[in-house]
């Protein structure tokens, strides 16, 4: 257990059901000797009481903006300046919007605006609220301003829905806080990678371009062709590369995932858009094609919704989409030093992956059996790393650990130590 006896946290508790988790977070922070001051929004007091928070912190809870003004100066300025780190948890959609717009109508938003210290935000809200363009604009602007995010995570919600928007557990937020208090501005990957990480500087100075998620090829305004990809593996690899010090550009198809911290993320929809953005991101040292790109698209997209008729089945003419992996692997100009592809197969895994390695002029193929339970859309993966020199079969593990091992392998190959 790492101790920080002289560090001070200003914890801003927003008004969401996840506020109850902050009680456990406070307890863990106090165990490490960290002094915690707490500010609660009016809505937060609907979920946890000031008395319970004060009992855990051993100090007064602040909730009134004008109660802090006095003869000695502006109290809210002193509160924010006295802290080593500000933590907003839960960071609700409302609180994030106020932060992004620079509003200061209550004590919480005023403190977040009146600080020159790092801010860590742990979002928590309904999945639809998280995915709403307004929230995503707020998050993108705050990330650009230097706010660091931990979470949100996917799971069951108090409202009865399932999806992305759950606040990270106290242990995860605590790990992020410890890294930031230690001066490390790059957060660890979800699920503590410990000694499986390639190391914080193993890809320092390298530029990495990664594709992730599916592509959506429109048939009409409401229908499309796609593959079954959640984007979890590609996003985990982007986060692992960033944690290893790389300059990462992630080109993502439509997914319900937060953009990885420390990564430039470009959102696209179709295979053609993805190829355009990949080529625009070159030159790069490494290209990793994780996206499940739709093999075909319709020759002509209908501008109106195609109606069903009892005696008539619409005829769709399909044309091949660009092969992004082959296009990058076969480049004569600006070809990355390492081109890594993914082969999602349902049969003859090794044989098909080996053929893909050669046909698309790749340096490595990550082969995964999509018939393995929990791989498609799940949290785990079972892969083999194939190069022209041999292969390495990995056991079933989390997608974060697969990402860490892949980045470690890549770093070794660039250093001349790859197997």
Q: What attributes characterize this protein structure?
A:
419 residues; alpha/beta; Rossmann fold; 2 domains; eight-stranded mixed sheet; six-stranded parallel sheet; 31% helix
- CATH homologous superfamily of the largest domain - what is it? CoaB-like
Number of helices: 13
Number of strands: 24
Q: Mean pLDDT across all residues, rounded? A: 86
Distance between the termini: 36 Å
The total number of structural domains is 2
CATH architecture annotation name of the largest domain? 3-Layer(aba) Sandwich
Q: Order of strands in the sheet with the most strands?
A: 15-14-11-16-19-20-22-23
Largest sheet: 8 strands, mixed
**So what's the CATH class of the largest domain?**
Alpha Beta
Q: What's the assembly state of these chains?
A: single chain
- Taken as a percent bin, the fraction of beta residues is 15-25%
Secondary structure category: alpha/beta
Task: Characterise this structure.
It is a single chain. The strands form 7 sheets. The protein has an 8-stranded mixed sheet, with helices on both faces. It has 419 residues and is an alpha/beta fold. The chain has 2 domains: 8-181, Flavin prenyltransferase-like (Rossmann fold, 3-Layer(aba) Sandwich), CATH 3.40.50; 194-414, CoaB-like (Rossmann fold, 3-Layer(aba) Sandwich), CATH 3.40.50. It contains 13 helices and 24 strands. Helix 3 packs across helix 5 (107-113). The protein is 31% helix and 23% strand.
Question: Would you kindly provide a brief summary of this structure?
Answer:
This protein has 419 residues and is α/β, with parallel strands linked by helices. The chain has two domains: 8-181, Flavin prenyltransferase-like (Rossmann fold); 194-414, Rossmann fold.
